TrEMBL record:
Its cofactor is FMN. Binds 1 FMN per subunit. Transmembrane segments: none annotated. Its main location: membrane. This is Dihydroorotate dehydrogenase (quinone). It comes from the Bacteria. Keywords: Cell membrane, Flavoprotein, FMN, Membrane, Oxidoreductase, Pyrimidine biosynthesis. Pathway: Pyrimidine metabolism; UMP biosynthesis via de novo pathway; orotate from (S)-dihydroorotate (quinone route): step 1/1. It is a peripheral membrane protein. One of its GO terms (cellular component) is plasma membrane. One of its GO terms (biological process) is 'de novo' UMP biosynthetic process. It is found in: Cell membrane; Membrane. Belongs to the dihydroorotate dehydrogenase family. Type 2 subfamily.
Length: 344
């Protein structure tokens, strides 16, 4: 029903307006008695072979929602009822910011892709914290960044503010230095500034009674040499893992009219490159750390390919928009099927 009726209707309108409309509708639908039970019974699968334990956390299934969809933690309880094993909120910044001028979100339907240049639009970390206080046992990741007006040399303080504000309310952290939509942000991926940033967050982590996992989200556009640096940085800073990958600035073989728009490209065109990065990190590090695989997952086959390449968990964003919640169910069913085949 989603792909045949709902998606064609939604895709007739501006994608950013549709995003907010969908949020509003889901909030209303889930207030109807029995709605949550209906969605959970249709999409949520619970099975022993889906469970994962990584960096001290237990995931009910390995399919999560990537950051950027529920930036301000408005819908994580409802979204978890669609079958996700975990929800990543953000990217959050210390102060609220409007993001880049509109229009800043584009569907590339012929390519099954999206280009966005949102620019970390969010209501600020404090507002998200108030919503997270109402969490009903959803495993939450907190994706953190810096405000646009904060210079790179002062960026550590922005990440520190977000880290401390969210600490009680998220299960793991993701350091986002790989978005192409905040000026000069990707320069923080260089070895020296990134090592310094992660070490500072580990200092904050060590002050807590119980430390929480810190992961790094990287761009798919890094060279092999830069990826080797990432492996070294993970080892040196003792962070807990990597999310591979964020959106790309590459534009190969696109067909859609919006292909020249500035911003980060996500969806099917990213499928192969994201898998290549996952495989590179897994092989070159000898699986020294967990990897969350994200980028171009539009089918169960895409998901299984990333798991086989070395991903421990998965995240959806553009694939979820194009395929709907059935994609989550299909992936989890494929994982169960593979586990049963391995036992046979």
């Amino acid at each position: 029903m989603y792909k045949s009726v709902i998606r064609p209707l939604l895709f007739r309108f501006d994608p950013e307006k549709v995003h907010y409309f969908t949020f509003s509708m889901l909030q209303k639908v889930f207030k109807i008695p029995g709605a949550q039970s209906f969605f959970r019974s249709n999409y949520l699968i619970e099975h022993k072979s889906l469970e994962r334990e990584l960096f001290g956390l237990k995931f009910k299934n390995p399919v999560g929602l990537a950051a950027g969809f529920d930036k301000d933690a408005k819908l994580y309880n409802e979204l978890s009822s669609l079958g996700f094993g975990f929800i990543e909120i953000g990217t959050l910044t210390p102060k609220a910011q409007a993001g880049n001028p509109k229009q800043r979100l584009f569907r590339l339907k012929e390519d099954q892709a999206i280009i966005n240049r949102m620019g970390f639009n969010n209501a600020g970390v404090a507002e998200a914290v108030e919503r997270l206080k109402k969490n009903k046992n959803v495993l939450i990741g907190g994706n953190i960044g810096k405000n646009k007006v904060t210079a790179n040399e002062d960026a550590v303080e922005d990440y520190r503010i977000c880290f401390n504000a969210l600490f009680k309310y998220v299960d793991y952290f993701v350091v986002n230095v790989s978005s192409p939509n905040t000026p000069n942000l990707r320069a923080l991926q260089d070895k020296a500034p990134l090592t310094a940033l992660l070490n500072e967050l580990q200092v904050e982590n060590a002050k807590q009674e119980r430390q929480k996992p810190i992961l790094l989200k990287i761009a798919p556009d890094l060279t092999d040499s830069q990826l080797m640096d990432i492996i070294d940085i993970v080892a040196d800073t003792k962070i807990d893992g990597v999310i591979a990958t964020n959106t790309t600035i590459a534009r190969q073989n696109l067909q859609s009219e919006h292909k020249a728009e500035m911003g980060g490209l996500s969806g099917k065109p990213l499928t192969n490159r994201a898998t290549e990065v996952i495989r590179f990190l897994a092989e070159k590090s000898n699986k020294a750390f967990p990897i969350i695989g994200v980028g171009g997952i539009h089918s169960a086959a895409d998901a299984m390919e990333k798991l086989e390449a070395g991903a421990d968990l998965l995240q959806l964003y553009t694939g979820f928009i194009y395929e709907g919640p059935q994609l989550i169910k299909d992936i989890n069913k494929a994982i169960i099927k593979k586990a049963n085949q391995d036992k046979a």
